[in-house]
Predict the 3D structure of the following.
Amino acid sequence: MKEQYPAEHSREVTQLANRLIENGHEMEVRVYYEDTDFSGVVYHSNYLKYMERSRTEWLRHLKIFHTDLEKDDSAFAIHRMALKYGPPARIDDLLTVRTVLQKLTGARSFLRQEVLRTEADGSEVMLCGADVEVAFINHGGGAKRFPDDLREKLTGSPDGMYPLGGET
Amino acid sequence: MKEQYPAEHSREVTQLANRLIENGHEMEVRVYYEDTDFSGVVYHSNYLKYMERSRTEWLRHLKIFHTDLEKDDSAFAIHRMALKYGPPARIDDLLTVRTVLQKLTGARSFLRQEVLRTEADGSEVMLCGADVEVAFINHGGGAKRFPDDLREKLTGSPDGMYPLGGET
Amino acid sequence: MKEQYPAEHSREVTQLANRLIENGHEMEVRVYYEDTDFSGVVYHSNYLKYMERSRTEWLRHLKIFHTDLEKDDSAFAIHRMALKYGPPARIDDLLTVRTVLQKLTGARSFLRQEVLRTEADGSEVMLCGADVEVAFINHGGGAKRFPDDLREKLTGSPDGMYPLGGET
Amino acid sequence: MKEQYPAEHSREVTQLANRLIENGHEMEVRVYYEDTDFSGVVYHSNYLKYMERSRTEWLRHLKIFHTDLEKDDSAFAIHRMALKYGPPARIDDLLTVRTVLQKLTGARSFLRQEVLRTEADGSEVMLCGADVEVAFINHGGGAKRFPDDLREKLTGSPDGMYPLGGET
């Protein structure tokens, strides 16, 4: 698994993007030694780390902080995750992690997350895509309804649902 | 997320089990510092590492080795993974990782993997369960049919399929 | 870095050893995918994980548990570590992690830890060796004297020092 | 270890710095879930990952790429590392990793690397400092002299040594 390496972006010095997009977030990550395994590519579970970074940075943009949640006996916890892997990422790759909120119910959020690489011809290839169901829980692990302020930060409205008019 | 800790197994000195079971494998893992995160429980992507260890040890029992595969321009690569998370594992927990081969086609294997904890009352709780589709590929990433000797190791027969009589 | 692979132990099914030795502890670890990087060998920081596992299992043998310490506003924290790397470990390697207590003062323990591989000719090669200074601290990070019961577990005597008669 | 959290930078949205400094490199890293352990702080071996990221980005600035080295039967490998730990980093912290080349001989480079946090009062605190000796090796693991072009990239001169006039 050590083919020729085409991507010019692997040789650039760059500041990594980290920005809000419509209903979500996008950030860039660089593939380092720590991310790869002996087969020459990114170890499969490390895509989940990239996705968590994007969820965290998205929440930071929305002024939602893990430390505040913890003080409030709350946390987000992954409940389900359906992963599909495409071509692998390699050392030095510059990847994009895209997170889009698909649905918000009383105590769950449903996200679509993708780790993408832009190829030499400008096309985006999906290296790992995930449908992610995140539960809002208390420290005992029980489900918890999103408080109004958190719901407002996530949807723009204290009684907001995703998609608009969706059921709880 | 720092409740009382009930499980006695967390205080035992033990040799970790690693054994074949019917159509699969079972091994024990101990939860160490490295596996946990600041919320006090095992970081969600680390269950995938536990599962990979069990797949590797299962293959070792069947005399299938990653280094041999690599020399033969072959590798197993995760293609899909559907994960469901239950209660979290904590530091010092003794966990069981169970791997069962569900189906084998021409170039894919389908596994059921579970990370379990035996509670004080003897019941098993599933902390993370996964339906895993593993592709057999060459170094270029293309699908590859299982060679006869590998198929025989996995199913006991050079033209074996799982379940018996299954289609390719 | 992908030479021929000689070591037969990489092909064995084995239960991993985990035992007390004089003034310390010895355990075996298997190298999995997760431990390696794209250069084909174990990523340098992962030897520190192996060492932590051995320290934890050693403490478990001595009936010292991280969760008890935490409830008692205590923790062990690495203060210094001097690492020397030898030949690298590779996928499937069976390694030995050896931990020996060198010295115990009022609030510090000094350990010698080595990650070793037994070669085909029976000789042991040191892949990573570390002189480790561990501080005993409270949750604020301040130094804390070892309580008598902990000191007794570590040295066999409530006022025990290492080496015998050493200064505090 | 879950004190009040003072640092405002933990709540900022920011693009992470990544830049050359005199004789070295400086980059910012954000602490994510994946970096922490159940004691509430960054796991000790993860500082080594931060340091490796800075070494890699420094080399990228100098047009030195791991994939080119690999094709040329070369690699950098950590030979020794002397680590000293200070106060711990916590979730959401914005850290600075600073890498300074101290000395370059025929086949070794000696780096000083520090992971720092800027406190509320503007002072920098060292969370982890390391004196790092990096060997230049071939794939068999043997020492290798730096080729002229690599030496020029690292020092600005094809026969450059660090410090100026230093011995090989």
Observations:
- Chain B has one domain: 17-155.
- The first strand of chain B starts at residue 18 and ends at 21.
- Residues 25 and 99 of chain B are 5 Å apart (CA to CA).
